[in-house]
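Private note to self, pasted from the team thread so I don't lose it. Backbone tokens:
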């Protein structure tokens, strides 16, 4: 689960553990959050491995996929959940660097992880991409973020058609705004 250290990713990791899965949790550099997620999963009685990495490059994703398969022997599900957002009041306030970084994190990492994990997936495996209601509704302050989530929807729909013949399911979930208690 990419971005599995906190928020939606942590909840998804724990839900999979409750259903009997051992979980690999990717995170960027939030070590304390990741350790908390690992403790929660181990309390459920499942194994959890933590893998920090910046997934903005294909090389990092390929390395993560290779390490993951060595740990668990068989990857059954890839959950792409990593994301960042930087609210801006106007389009002019979105720098080119911000746009590129948001797409590298929110979209390119999904594509790269799928490409890296795909050789390890077998029939009846699944890929789940986290998108957002902003993909459909937009958001006046999250223009670049919304665009990445729309791109994820298109990727998911096309990839699901492409991989169905291999018996690999590809779906997306589109949560709305989520608040967690502090």
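Design output:
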């Amino acid at each position: 689960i990419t971005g599995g250290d906190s928020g939606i990713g942590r909840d998804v990791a724990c839900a999979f553990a409750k259903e009997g899965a051992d979980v690999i949790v990717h995170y960027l550099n939030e070590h304390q959050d990741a350790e908390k997620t690992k403790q929660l999963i181990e309390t459920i009685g499942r194994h959890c491995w933590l893998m920090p990495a910046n997934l903005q490059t294909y090389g990092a994703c390929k390395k993560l996929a290779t390490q993951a398969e060595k740990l668990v022997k068989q990857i059954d599900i890839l959950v792409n959940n990593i994301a960042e957002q930087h609210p801006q009041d106007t389009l002019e306030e979105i720098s080119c660097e911000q746009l590129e970084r948001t797409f590298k994190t929110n979209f390119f990492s999904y594509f790269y992880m799928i490409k890296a994990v795909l050789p390890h997936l077998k029939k009846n495996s699944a890929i789940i991409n986290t998108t957002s209601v902003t993909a459909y509704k937009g958001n006046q302050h999250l223009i670049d973020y919304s665009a990445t989530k729309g791109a994820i929807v298109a990727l998911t729909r096309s990839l699901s058609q492409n991989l169905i013949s291999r018996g690999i399911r590809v779906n997306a979930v589109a949560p709305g705004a989520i608040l967690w208690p502090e």
